[in-house]
Amino acid sequence: MFNLNCALVLLVLVPEAQEHIQSKRYYIMSAFSNRQSIKDMNDQINDASSGDTILASIDEEIASLSSSNVGKGQAFLDKALEDSEDNVKAMKRRALGARNTLTKTIKPDPVFDSNASLARDWLTASKADEEAESEGIIQALSDKIATQSAALLTAESSMDENFLRTGRLDNVSTLTQDPDSIRTDAERIEDSQYLSGSGVGIEDRIFAPEPTETNGLMSRPDNVDAVEAYTAEVAKADKDFNTAFVKKMADSEGIVDHVDSLGIPTLGYGILPETARNYGFDPDSAEYSDRKVLAAAVYNAMYKEAKTSYSDVFKNLDESQKVGVLSLYINLGELPDGVVTALSSATPDFDAARESLSSVVLGSPRDAAGKRKKDSKNNTIYTSSKGLSKRRAGEYNMLMKGQSGFEPITTVSVEGTKAAPEFVWKDKNDIEIHRYTPTVTGQGKVYQGLDDSNSMTTVDV
Q1: Buried b (16+ CB within 10 A) or exposed e, 370-388
Q2: How far apart are the C-alpha atoms of 443 and 360, rounded to whole Å?
Q3: What was the pLDDT predicted at 177?
Q4: Fewest beta carbons less than 10 Å away: which of 80, 372, 409, 446?
Q5: Quick check: 183 pLDDT over 50?
Q6: Does the pLDDT value for residue 417 go beyond 90?
Q7: Is 134 helix (H, G, I), strand (E, B) or coil?
Q8: What's the angle, vertex CA 218, arms to CA 217 and CA 222, rounded to 5?
Q9: What is the mean pLDDT of residues 322-334?
Q10: Which of 450, 331, 308 is closest to 394 using CA atoms?
Q11: Residues 249/327, Cβ–Cβ less than 8 Å
């Protein structure tokens, strides 16, 4: 009875059970449609409809549906999986197509630099009229830029970066001076003497006097008189030197304008017109019509220049020796390397200086137009000059003046031939002091012996 009731309930509640019964009834009816007895048919129906049979069938159906490996459950699962795979593939195709379409038609949104935009706005406002409202806009933009820049700072940001972005130095302690570090003038002087390594005990050190009414910060320094006296002494020495030199040049060169042996126009006192102009003096002006005035001005300028250019030479010489060296400098516009080397050492080498001096006897003759003469091969002609050898001998005498045992050169003689002359320096006892044979080397130059204006005779120094 219990089984029948359960079966009835299942028939009502389970559609699958009803369908099963109907299927069985149809099968049975079909099977016995060939005139079998209704009783047999009903018996089979009743057997098929019994509770136990129905429950067994239901259990079998449930087992089939609930299994994923056999029966309808497996079929249902396979169908679901197949549908799911198809759906996933379709979804992928739709998603890929949509992405390709978006890539082709949609451009990414630009990323704007807010600081750059603010900077442009700030510059635009800065160019506006300087009215109160414009100033307000500029200030507001400046504050906004500062705020955004400050937002980029982190705890690891350096003090330099902090200052560059905000214009402020935060977390910097206020600079204060320790009262103990404040010193008086006397203490500062004492410290400077100590730090200078003077080695003088504090009780023996000399401190500057405290300022008084006559010895204040703006008072005349004590050494001014000494400095002025020294400056005046140097100026007087230079003036005396220049005066003596002008006199010497008057004796050797003459005081009137002339043309020298090489055909070069020369002013009185041995000044070349171009040299005077190079130093800023116009020889044609009325101011310098007196050639002595012009000579004093030109030679003073050249002396100062020579002392600066060849300080190592002039510091080793006395006044007489300086006259000889300056004469050479004025004549050449420079000092020969051999002379500079010989006279720059702590102990001047006067023998080496003599060798260098005696070789400076060459000149280049000029034509009527003042140009250097050329030979048939367009080489510049050089000749040796007895007059230049005489001048070099005089300069050597001045250089050697006062030297122990020195006998001045008194004559310059010419030996050999005009094509290959030798200059011989001799003292008053006719003793030979030095001999030199001129030569010329170098591309584009040719030596033609003693100058045409010179003779082979001896000349006094």
Answers
A1: eeebeeeeebebbbbbbbb
A2: 19
A3: 43
A4: 80
A5: no
A6: yes
A7: helix
A8: 85
A9: 90
A10: 331
A11: yes
Please, are residues 246 and 299 in contact by the beta-carbon 8 Å criterion? Answer: yes
Q: Shortest CA distance to 330 belongs to which of 281, 252, 270, 389?
A: 270
Amino acid at 40: D
Cβ atoms of residues 448 and 381 within 8 Å: yes
Q: Which pLDDT tens digit goes with each residue over 199-237?
A: 444 444 454 455 555 555 555 566 666 667 657 776 787
Bridge partner list, 446 = 381
Q: How many CA atoms lie within 13 A of 21 on its CB side?
A: 19
Query: How far is it, in rounded angstroms, from Cα 254 to Cα 246?
Result: 11
65 and 73 Cβ atoms separated by less than 8 Å: yes
Q: 3-state class of 211 per DSSP? A: coil
Q: Residue 37: pLDDT band by 50, 70, 90 thresholds?
A: low
DSSP symbols for 68-101: SSSHHHHHHHHHHHHHHHHHHHHHHHHHHHHHHH
Residue % of the chain over a pLDDT of 70: 51
Q: To which residue do tokens 């949509």 refer? A: 98
Q: Which residues are CB-contacts of 197 (< 8 A; sequence separation ≥ 6)?
A: none
Q: Write down the residue that tokens 């070349």 correspond to.
A: 272
Q: What are phi and psi of 35, to 5 degrees?
A: 60, 30
Of 216, 215, 191, 217, the closest CA to residue 205 belongs to 191
Rounded Cα gap, residues 84 and 172, in angstroms:
69
What would the mean pLDDT of 88-109 be, rounded to a whole number? 60
Which residue type is seen at 337?
Answer: D
Whether the per-residue pLDDT at 189 is higher than 50: the answer is no
- 20-49 mean pLDDT: 58
Query: What pLDDT, in 10s, does the model give residues 86-97?
Result: 666 666 666 666
- Distance separating alpha carbons of residues 166 and 182, to the nearest angstrom: 35
Please give the structure tokens belonging to residue 212.
């008084």
Alpha-carbon distance of 228 to 224, in angstroms, equals: 6
Residue 308 CA to residue 33 CA, distance in Å, equals 151
User: Which of 134-138's residues contact partners 24+ apart within 8 Å by CB, and which partners?
Assistant: none
Helix (H) or strand (E) holding 187: helix 185-195
Domain ranges of the chain: 2-62
Q: Are 407 and 431 in contact, with CB atoms under 8 Å apart? A: yes
| Residue scoring higher pLDDT (274 or 67) | 274
